[in-house]
Amino acid sequence: MPEAQPIIVVTSQTPRSWINFLDEVSIHLRESLGTQSYYAVGLALQKGLPYLLIPLLIQIYGEQNYASYVLFYSSSLMFANFIGVAIPNTIIRFWYIESDKVSLSWTYFILLWSFQIALALVSGTGMFYLFVKSFGSEQAALLTVLGLAFAFLYNFNTFLTGVCRARSYSKRYLYAQVIASVALVSSMLLLRHMSGLTTLIVMFMLSLLWQNLYLLNAVREFLRASAIRFDSLLAKRVLIYSLPLIPHVGATLFYFWIDKYLVRLNFSSEQFSQFTISLQYAFAQVFFGQVFAMHTFPLICRLVAERNESKLRSVIRSYNSLLVVLGVVWIAGILLVQRLGFQLQVNLAGFVVLGCAILVWNLAGNYINVLWARDKTKAVAVIMMSTGGILIGILWAGCLVHNLKLCYWSHLIWAAAALLALGTLERSQGTASSVVVAVPEAVPQPPAEFNA
Q1: What CA–CA distance (Å, rounded) separates 380 from 258?
Q2: CA-wise closest residue to 102 among 184, 225, 218
Q3: I want to staple 266 with a disulfide (CB 3.0 to 4.6 A). Which of 251, 340, 399, 404 is the partner?
């Protein structure tokens, strides 16, 4: 069979080819929206509302407090990945292959609680030291407690959301996001007279807590079905499967933390705020990739298992083209809003560069998913960790010469290098795909959820 070629955009020039391509895109788009409409609306609330609230949050709590919250969130996500040992990301895979859902539910709950408590005790000192360097000694102790609590809530949210998806509870997922939205807006209004970073953190934590309490219904029936049942063999299999996910997710979270950390240490408060807010607006594009991935990732796994390379090429080509269009529209839209007189507190040139970087990451996400479906998780982790050295090197150089432009460009150069490496690896695999089972979605960047 011919070697598969990853295509990002259409290269054919004939009118008929363009018509066929547009028809192909429309078919895939209808499939995605038709089968994942509840997920799409839920993700729109989960990912979109926090970004829409950025101007209001900045007005109420100030630029520096909001920028500091983003740094706190990025830091907490790294520790969440560590203390959770990536266990929450594996539930979908085991849900389909384990018939005893009672034992499965109890085993996951006990694993999550045990590892989070044990590793939180170990990592608490490291988090405290990190927060001393980031926020000063006065707030470090309180922020450490909040950070660990945040990590607990986030890991359980990942686990419970995975159960809902495995059980096809798309409506329940949507209702959970509605509850979280109401909790977020209500908390913002009720706590608006209490300024400060801790208030901002508590506000997002309450939103996540209410969401988790509702999602708990997805597994409550299994936990109530019998006494505690812990399957040690299943626990061992879960840990063996989850451990390789840690380097990939951990490296990605680290790279999206180190930029803000270095900029905060080496540049003024105003420059740090502009950099962080510009990155947040650019990062909002991730929503498009995540909505499509709710449909495309299972489809990619099936096509790889069936070795249907022609349909796989069609899916990648269609969704990457859609991501390019949506990314350009988003970047242009933000620039237009700023042009109309709305003060978004962004560095316009920096935002364009960061916006292009996140667009490239969205394109890379499809190739990551294909490689994960081909059971190339270790290779993807190696690429993510090795290309991340480019980001750190350029960031470090920018800080040494005190040139913030280099910090903006570091993300685009890193994303382009990763896309090139991932595309080359995916192309080299061709049709040599193996039969796969459901695996967790690739995470080319940390999710900008309600707690982001």
Answers
A1: 20
A2: 225
A3: 399
**CA 176 to centroid of chain Cα atoms:** 18
Q: Which tokens go with 116?
A: 């989070």
Specify the DSSP class assigned to residue 8: S
Its pTM stands at 0.68
- pLDDT at residue 33, rounded to an integer: 55
What is the phi/psi pair of residue 430, to 5°? 55, -125
Domain ranges of the chain: 9-40+244-452, 53-243
* Unique residue bearing structure tokens 């595309």: 423
Candidates 225, 178, 185, 186; CA nearest to 41 is: 178
Q: How far is CA 34 from CA 38, 161, 245, 288, 298, in A?
A: 9, 20, 31, 16, 15
Give the whole-angstrom CA distance, residue 327 versus residue 436.
31
Cα 162 to chain centroid, rounded: 14
Enumerate residues 6+ apart whose C-beta is below 8 A from 387: 414, 417, 418, 421
**What DSSP string runs through 284-353?**
TTHHHHHHHHHHHHHHHHHHHHHT-HHHHHHHHHHHHHHHHHHHHHHHHHHHHHHHTT------HHHHHH
What residues of the chain score a pLDDT lower than 70?
Answer: 1-36, 96, 225-226, 295, 298, 430-452
Calculate Rg over the CA atoms of the chain.
22
**SS3 for 374?**
coil
Backbone angles phi, psi at 444, to 5 degrees: -65, -15
From residue 142, give the alpha-carbon distance in Å to each of 150, 198, 419: 12, 8, 40
Cβ–Cβ under 8 Å, residues 133 and 191: no
Closest CA relative to residue 324, chosen from 279, 283, 297, 356: 356
Check residue 411 and give its pLDDT: 93
> In whole numbers, what is the pLDDT of the chain averaged over residues?
81
Residue of 281, 210, 252 whose CA lies nearest to 74: 252
> What letters, b where the CB count within 10 A reaches 16 and e where it falls short, cover 361-371?
bbbbbbbbbbb
